[in-house]
Amino acid sequence: MKIAVFCSANKNIDPDFFTMTEEMGKWMAENGHDLVFGGCNSGLMDCIGKAVKAHGGRTIGVVPTLVERGGRTFPDLDIEIPCDNLSDRKDLMLAQSDIFVALPGGIGTLDEIFTIAAAHTIGYHHKMVILYNMKGFWNSTIALLDDMAEKSMIRGDWRDVIEVADNLAELTKLCEG
Fold first, then answer.
1. How far apart are CA 77 and CA 73, in angstroms?
2. What keywords are annotated for this sequence in UniProt (predicted)?
3. C or N terminus of the chain, fewer CB within 10 Å?
4. pLDDT tens across 130-147, in order?
5. Neighbours of 159 (CB within 10 A)
6. Residue 174 CB: number of other CB atoms within 10 A?
């Protein structure tokens, strides 16, 4: 399976997020899952790439030209897919991936989650997004989605499109289930 991972490229974040990301990368590689990610060499992006590679897995980086020109490309990509901008990146990641996992991240990660989820709700694809809720990171987003659903701003149950995993065991079950 090709698992797309959305996550932070920041370095100065909770060290536990790095540990949990390494565990996920190890699981992915040991179970033959390819990593599809933004292809950056910093933060959790770098961490997941290194963890997958360290355990014999394959990395597919979808790298905007701006990132490449800035010298911020993950150095050990098996496949590099260049793209023009972040919109192209999302489209290419959608085409390349079977499932999407959101680790802790910022505005870019939110954009990626909701772009993929919105396309699912309209019927462009049927691929799931999983919020890997490390240390409750996504709790406020989950509360926001629940509030929006309660106010009838979301058709149906948002959990039909976005699932939540609070630990690696739950994540692996959702990915393989």
1. 9
2. Cytokinin biosynthesis, Hydrolase
3. C
4. 999 999 999 999 999 999
5. 12
6. 16
* Listed residue (6, 8, 28) closest to 130, CA to CA: 6
A 10 A CB-CB count for 18 gives: 17
Tokens of 109: 């990660």
Q: How far apart are CA 34 and CA 16, in angstroms?
A: 23
C-beta separation of 46 from 40 below 8 A: yes
Q: How far apart are the C-alpha atoms of 84 and 113, rounded to whole Å?
A: 20
Q: Are 106 and 131 in contact (CB under 8 A)?
A: no
Nearest to 135 by CA among 8, 16, 10: 16
Q: What is the mean pLDDT of the chain?
A: 96
- Whole-angstrom Cα distance, residue 9 to residue 4? 15
Q: What is the pLDDT of residues 93-121, one digit of tens each?
A: 999 999 999 999 999 999 999 999 999 99
Q: What residues are paired with 93 via a beta bridge? A: none
